[in-house]
Write a structure and sequence with these properties.
It is a single chain. With 470 residues, the protein is an alpha/beta fold. The protein has 3 domains: 2-160, 3-Layer(aba) Sandwich (Rossmann fold), CATH 3.40.50.12160; 184-210 and 232-245 and 267-409, tm_1862 like domain (pyruvate-formate lyase- activating enzyme), CATH 3.80.30.20; 415-469, Beta Barrel (OB fold (Dihydrolipoamide Acetyltransferase, E2P)), CATH 2.40.50.140. It has 14 helices and 21 strands. The chain has a 6-stranded parallel sheet with strand order 3-2-4-5-6-7, sandwiched between helices. A 5-stranded mixed beta barrel has the order 17-18-19-21-20. A 3-stranded parallel sheet has the order 9-12-13, sandwiched between helices. Strand 12, helix 9 and strand 13 (264-268) form a beta-alpha-beta unit. 41% of the residues are buried. Bound molecules: S-adenosyl-L-homocysteine (SAH), iron/sulfur cluster and FE3-S4 cluster. Residues 43-44, 46-47, 80-82, 114, 198-199, 202-203 line the site of FE3-S4 cluster.
């Protein structure tokens, strides 16, 4: 066991020095005006949380943030590699910056995140996008100030793909995007190596943050008014295994839940192979833990689950769901599904359809299989055409729409506690969310944004609810 223990290191003093040096250079260049950074984040909440650290460091170096790249001195795209479509979007949007760089030659264009940990991507950027000045991967976050300083001073292109994929760093300044909804990473990386997935290759080995560091951050977030806190990890159920004093995820979440305050506690993502009864019991008895379980099953066919290396079967998944439904009153279940995994037949796909009919999920994130370079599934035989997979995909959406509509209709007439999150631009209605992560639209003043309210559900439209303030 001992060699599996991963201890955190503190962000080095040297990086704080670099932050000061960056501030000095910028001050001279901008003659006292604040430099502007534009940070765009692709992909999952892990990336959002990383961007918040990068923004924290930029903010300490004196940067302000803009919603548009046009007036920025520093442009950063934090990229996602999970599917081809995600990568194509990044390549397209980076290409579009070429003109901007021509107009403003001073601007520094940088790319970071999961895509940049792949050698072939970094090479393509190097060769085809000469106006990109700085590239770094997910393992280089802890010396971002040094990388930024070097590219500002040398004016040369800086490219770095990290090799610290087993390390964990603490002490980052964090510039949170939201003021009442916030992300709290509890672990990094993944050891599961599902055969389709690029994440373990670009995010490194699974490693957990110390419990006390997480508890301190959670306390601070609650004290500063966060109402909706999501604990993040690729597989939160295996939290604590790399710590010197191992802790289970259920223990961690129970401890946070015991903190006083008016807030909801969420987490993502859970892996079905180790979603324990202890965790489900913790959700059931929690005061703040939302009655929502996002439990991606990917496929309803045992043959395909095996080929995906998921380490559970349909029976075990359904047993977990049955226990969650029994213990957690009104539990809201959501999931991720991949359609068209190599070798999947229509018979296998029908097993996925029957599973979603049986469980009745509130909502689903559905994806068509996308081969990722370097993963085992990239090389599997994949005889089904894209057109056929598209047909299955639409069939899945139709079935789920029916289920979601039925589930949402059954909530009409009920009273729900919701968090008001914002205003819908088109209609001026307020947007809110239930503890089960269902969207509710209602009339009301903007001053309610960021508060909890009780609403009566008056109507259901597919997977969206309409409500009235009580
Ligand atoms: N760690 C999380 C998921 C991270 S990726 C978990 O294990 O549940 C988010 C989702 O993207 C996955 O659940 C999966 O459904 C989908 N996904 C990942 N790799 C994919 C690929 N190569 N093609 C299509 N979908 C993929
Ligand atoms: Fe990818 Fe599987 Fe890890 Fe999730 S558990 S990040 S799907 S390898
Ligand atoms: Fe994408 Fe990286 Fe998240 S590949 S889904 S941003 S971990």
């Amino acid at each position: 066991m001992a060699e599996n223990i991963i201890k955190a290191e503190q962000l080095s003093e040297k990086q704080s020095e670099y932050i000061k040096l960056i501030a000095e250079i910028i001050e001279i260049r901008k003659r006292g005006e604040k430099p502007i950074a534009f940070v765009r984040t692709y992909g999952c909440q892990q990336n959002v949380a990383d961007s918040e650290k990068i923004k924290g460091m930029l903010s300490e170096a004196g940067f302000d943030f803009s919603d548009s790249p046009d007036d920025a001195d520093f442009i950063l795209f934090n990229t996602c590699a999970v599917r081809e479509h995600a990568e194509d979007r990044v390549f397209g949007n980076v290409g579009a910056l070429k003109n901007l760089k021509r107009k403003h030659p001073q601007v520094l264009i940088a790319l970071c995140g999961c895509m940049m940990e792949q050698e072939h991507v970094a090479n393509r950027i190097y060769n085809s996008f000469p106006f990109v000045g700085l590239v770094f991967g997910t393992h280089s976050l802890h010396h971002f100030p040094e990388l930024l300083y070097t590219s500002l001073v040398d004016g040369k292109r800086v490219f770095e793909r990290g090799n610290d994929d087993k390390k964990i760093y603490e002490g980052f300044p964090v510039h949170r995007d939201g003021i009442f909804k916030g992300w709290l990473p509890i672990m990094y990386g993944c050891n599961n190596f599902c055969t389709y997935c690029i994440v373990p290759y670009v995010r490194g080995r699974e490693r957990s943050r110390e419990k006390d560091v997480i508890l301190k951050e959670a306390r601070e977030m609650i004290a500063s008014g966060y109402k909706d806190i999501t604990l993040l990890g690729q597989n939160v159920n295996s939290y604590g295994k790399t710590l010197e004093n191992p802790v289970t995820f259920a223990e961690l979440i129970r401890e946070i839940d015991s903190f006083e305050g008016d807030y909801w506690l969420r987490f993502m993502t859970s892996h079905p192979k180790d979603c324990s009864k202890e965790l489900i019991d913790a959700i059931a008895s929690g005061k703040h833990i939302s009655k929502h379980l996002h439990l991606p099953f990917q496929s309803g066919s045992d043959r395909i689950l095996k080929a995906m290396n998921r380490h559970y079967d349909r029976k075990k998944y359904l047993e977990t769901i049955a226990y969650a439904k029994e213990r957690i009153d009104g539990v809201s279940l959501t999931s991720d599904i991949i359609v068209g995994f190599p070798g999947e037949t229509y018979e296998d796909f029908k097993e996925t359809l029957s599973l979603i009919r049986e469980v009745e999920f509130t909502s689903l994130f559905t994806f068509i299989f996308s081969p990722r370079k370097g993963t085992p599934a990239e090389k599997y035989d994949d005889p089904v055409s894209a057109e056929e997979k598209g047909k299955w995909f639409r069939e899945l959406l139709d079935v789920q729409e029916e289920i979601a509509a039925k589930r949402c209709s059954s909530m009409v007439g009920q009273t729900e506690k919701v968090l008001i999150e914002g205003v819908k631009e088109k209609t001026g209605e307020l947007n809110a969310r239930t503890s089960g992560n269902i969207i509710v639209e209602l009339d009301g003043g903007k001053d309610l944004i960021g508060t909890f309210q009780n609403v009566k559900i008056t109507k259901a439209r597919n997977w969206i609810l309409k409500g009235e303030l009580i």
